[in-house]
Amino acid sequence: MHLTRIEFTTAKEFAKAYNHLDFLKRLGNPCYIETGDCRSRAPVIITTLLHGNEVSGLKAIHSLLRDDFTFDNPVVFIIASVSAALTEPVFMHRMLKGQVDLNRCFGKTTVATEKPNPQFILAKAISDLIVQYQPKSVVDIHNTSGSGPAFAVIAESSISNSSNTKDDYIDLASHFSERVIVTDICLGALMEMDFNCPIITFEAGGTLDSQSDYHAEQGIINLLNTDKDGNKFGNLDVLSCPRRVMLKQQYTLIYTSELVNDIDLCLRGDIEHFNFAHTPAHTHIGWTNKDIDALLKTDSEAIKASEIFYSENDMLYTKKQIMMFMITTRADIAATDCLFYFVET
Fold first, then answer.
1. Which of 240, 259, 294 is the C-terminal boundary of a domain?
2. Residue 115, pLDDT score
3. Residues 75 and 168 in one domain
4. CA distance 143 to 136
5. 89 and 155 belong to one structural domain
6. What integer is the mean pLDDT of 316-326?
């Protein structure tokens, strides 16, 4: 699978003539759009739609092109999971059925088969294109699967392999959000790659949150116009080393307001309200009649789920004060990826 080059003038024509959905239909395939002279000046690279259901980055690109935004710095926009995004119902599919998560394929190679995995091929095509441009910085725009505030994420693995400093990465993040997560978790995400420049993921908020599209567009504007008006966030809230909480594969999950006897884990239907909140110990977050460590696991062998949560009378509680984020009420995503991330506070 390759990336189609879309001429800047063509992309602008599409953006002016169509809404963001029909604009994407006109693009048709994974593609990239180059603005400005990327040969004399290192460009900023903005990637989006690595997940087909996370649309704020696409909307931001469409809006900037439609409104004749002046690109003072050269930019390359990469739009990835077009087929997944356009599969009915549109903007609902993280990836196509039967495919692996594209943002788990970077820096990895697929097992040799008669039919190579298209997600790994696309991830390599995106990586190769970024390397060719030798960019100034890379920003990968996403939406969270649930409702919540915007935040940026930095991968420690990228920093450790780069000639740039951690402060360079945080400075890049500061154009997008006052909240920054520095993670040591390695999943095969684009932000973990070493492109010899700062790279971040920006989670613009939930797809259905009214401010998410604004956060994505304004973050790009802040970054591209930094020399002109210096728009960026001031004091940053930096959280380090989050952990993932996952449901073990054999168990079932729903979001509800009470215990459902034939479901293994019932999480509160309003659990998204805990996103980035300081959640005290002994906070009720759901229901289960299963053993905690049999039901849940973290991504760290050193931390058992039962050290963070406990159950009493079939009710699930936090054992420590924690801050949770990336909480979703999409049971399909939560069960196959993770329930949420947390840090101890």
1. 240
2. 66
3. yes
4. 23
5. yes
6. 97
